[in-house]
Amino acid sequence: MRKAANKVLVIDDEPQIRRFVSAGLELYGYSVSEAESGSAGLNAVAHIRPDLIILDLGLPDMGGVEVLSTVRSWSNVPVIVLSIQVDEEQKVHLLRSGADDYMIKPFGIAELAARCEAALRRYHKAVDKDPVVRTGPLSIDLVTRAVTLDGRHITLTRKEYRLLHLLASHLGLVMTHNQLIKDIWGSTSPDNVQYLRTLVRKLRQKLEVDPSQPKLLISESGVGYRLERHPAPSSRNPS
Amino acid sequence: MQVKFQAARISARTVLYPLLFVALTTAVMALVLRYTALEFESIVYLIPVLICAIRWGLISAIVGIFASAAVADFLFIPPFYSFAISDPKQIFEMALFLLVALVTSNLAARLKKEVDTLHRRELEVRNLYEFSRRLALCSTAGGLLKAIQDYLSVHLGCEAHLVRLGPLFAGHGDVEGAIVPQPIAREAKEMVAAREPGSRLVTEPATSSLWALKHITTTTEEHGVLAVNLGKPGGSDTDKLNDRIDALLLEASAMLTRIDAAEALAKANMRLESEILRTALVGTASHELRSPVAAILGTASVLDQMLALQGNEKVRSLVEGMHLEAKRLDGDIQNLLDTARITDTGLRPHLVWTDPADMVAGAIRQRSHRIAAHKLNVDVDPKLPLVHVDAVLLEQAVGQLIENAVKYSPVGSDITVVARAKGGEVILSVTDKGVGLTDEEANHLFRRAYRGRRHLGNVPGLGLGLWIARIFVAVNGGTLSADSPGPGQGTTMSIHLPIAPSIAPELVPLSNAQGG
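^ inputs. structure came back:
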């Protein structure tokens, strides 16, 4: 299922964090390189040409955001940002500056691996032949626009589908409120947050087993929404 | 009474000196008249008379006038050596002399009085000025008291002591009955105890001296009662003294107010500084602690994965225990950081229209590792109105309530999270079947660093969680309440959020979303 040995570069000044991230990601089949500063990291990006970068924000020599924008100036390689305590505005700022996702310390290796996979999938989407996005009981065919839940067809309104499509095409990654609002309504007036909330609520009522404890359409407080990646239940998967 | 008193005091000088002066003038006159061709002029006697009027007052001058008239008549006016006057012109001159002498000496005496008063006033003003200057130099209430005492003893000759030391005078006073006679001290203490304003006059039985008791107080603080010994009671003099002391204290009280304010300010500043330092320390230390804890948690998660691959369940449970403890530690660190954030920079809530259901779901997800051993029931009204709040803060607040429910209820018992709208509010509540609340706990629950006495030894915690929750709720315009039927009967904690008027979110998206 996974591509062999995706190269991951971990840029973090704390050796104990690098150690467990490396060991953990190797368990998940990645080949991991490490850099302990921003400049060493940028060097490594140029030489190793990693498939994914894990970047700590609190580097001693230069700001993580600076490293991120330098990388972005010549490469679209997926970047996941690590940080201790950033507020929601900073998270939104990071996402806008080109980060694919963020992880707040402390985090478990399984979460990180899931984000890495989501980011890589998103990056390689162009070459991915399968237009069907699957997560748990849900499948979305981005070409035919067919949405099924446990194999049953689900009817969505145009805006509901648009929302689901956006989240599905970033499966497992967070999308900010503004990204969603801009795409669905074409403007970013603050009033539209209310529309978005209501739209999410309606979509949840159609997709979630228990809309009050959503498992698919996850809210990231103060930042946005994420369509959570779940392994497809093999017995029920029609394809 | 006053006149008599003065007359008695000045009689000796007023009579003797004019007589002496007149005698001297007469002797000089006699010599001059013997060796020159000059004629006698009674006007010469105006010299001793005016001197007497200026130096010793009107009475002395009158004595001088009559003495000189008598001597002049007897020695220099014909017939000599007799009080009779033969020349009518001489009679007229004598009468004129008497009149002029009386008028001028009266004027001179009055002038002298004015000058005396002026002198006294000037002295008083100078003393008061000196007193003010000393007051202005006082930076403590104790120094001020010393200045008042000095002034009273040096310039008014009264001893003064402060009875019942107020907090500002601590360490300066020596009083408490040691110097102030017992009956006076007792009376003064009565005044302090009764917070009786103004002053009292009390006579001490043993020495029959009069004491004035003055209550010294400012708008912010009470300092005690100043006991001033006025000496033996002496009518209007005592009254005057009393008035002057009052004027003095009036001046001092303005200064005292200033000192009070300055000292209160200095104290508050010191408290603030130490508080800032403390929170900064807590903030930095917590930040430093967080990295290693993150490394431990991450490492534990990697170990867990490895052991899962190897199927080693026994060691896995150990890793799970390590993970839970590290997670708890991280929660405590988060609380310390939140505390530092609240006290240090204050909170700036970022208000956005939010679905209450999202906050509840987020809080449950946040605490899923903690709640796993309990039976969780969630009841969220699907038609809740949106609320205009900071979702991140409120999600943490709900998380704190869940954390508390888990901590204080037995493993396996029910925890129920309910979200509903009622009476213009959205209410998010967490109910457990745990230890409940005593009255004392219910009263202090939301205080910073409060821990119920029953749980100090057996439930770990810093007592910050609910305090943080209360503040996070409050900055969103809501209130946090706790209800418990009593100890051992469970607790319900509720967040009440006002439903703000919105742009009818139920209607707009329908038209927008159901187009195709």
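The CA atoms of residues 409 and 434 of chain B lie 4 Å apart. Chain B has four domains: 2-132, 140-267, 274-343, 348-498.
thumbs up if we can close this ticket
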